[in-house]
Amino acid sequence: MLRLFIAIATPTSALPSLAKARDLLRESGADVKWEPTEKLHCTIKFLGDTREELVQPIVGQLSQIAGSTPPFSVCYKGVSCFPGRRDPRTIWAGIEDSEGAMKKLFEAVDEAMSSLGFEREGRAFHAHVTLGRVKGTRHIRELLDTMETVTLENPPVKIQEIDLLKSTLQPGGSRYALVAAMKLGMGTLSAGGSGV
Predict the structure, then answer these.
(1) Residue 153: DSSP 8-state
(2) Residue ranges per domain, the chain?
(3) pTM of structure
(4) What architecture does CATH give domain 2-191?
(5) Is 157:73 a contact under the CB 8 Å cutoff?
(6) Coil vs helix vs strand at 9
(7) How far apart are CA 84 and CA 3, in angstroms?
(8) Can you tell me whether residue 45 is helix, strand or coil?
(9) Could you report the per-residue pLDDT of 71-121, keeping only the tens digit for each?
(10) Rounded Cα–Cα distance for residues 186 and 121 (Å)
(11) 45, 121 Cβ separation under 8 angstroms
(12) 120 CB-contact burial (10 Å; exposed 0-12 / middle 13-18 / buried 19+)
């Protein structure tokens, strides 16, 4: 079984501002497991434990979706938390998608994956990049106060591919490996070094 998810990698030009926002929040000293810069991404759909024989059908479906989705622009903007300030669990950076392309992409992926037997997403899609996960209550007030002062507004960047990634759980946290990358507007594939 492979632990898989479908994601949009953060364009390289946007990573410094996301990392800076994360590092400013980290200064609060809150008990948060912060994501390393190389793992900052937007999850479109988490598939979870997946049989190996489903990988090619998944890639085929994603390739079709990518082929009919032209590249689109987004802005990384603002930081906040899920489910809310009363009980913050996930600290995130927002993604502004004025064209609604990200939501359409999510809906197409959700529909395609349900045809392969994956459960449909029960919650509304909210495009974001997870910056960290709260582990305890230490310095939470300081974290929330810092959140009020952090401004994140990146110039628009172009999203040009969707990725299928494998997550391997390890003692120090999960490690990601690219299974396949689908270029938007072309649907071409490039396989990653996943050993799949």
Answers:
(1) B
(2) 2-191
(3) 0.91
(4) Alpha-Beta Complex (3.90)
(5) yes
(6) strand
(7) 28
(8) strand
(9) 999 999 999 999 988 899 999 999 999 889 999 999 999 999 999 999 999
(10) 26
(11) yes
(12) exposed
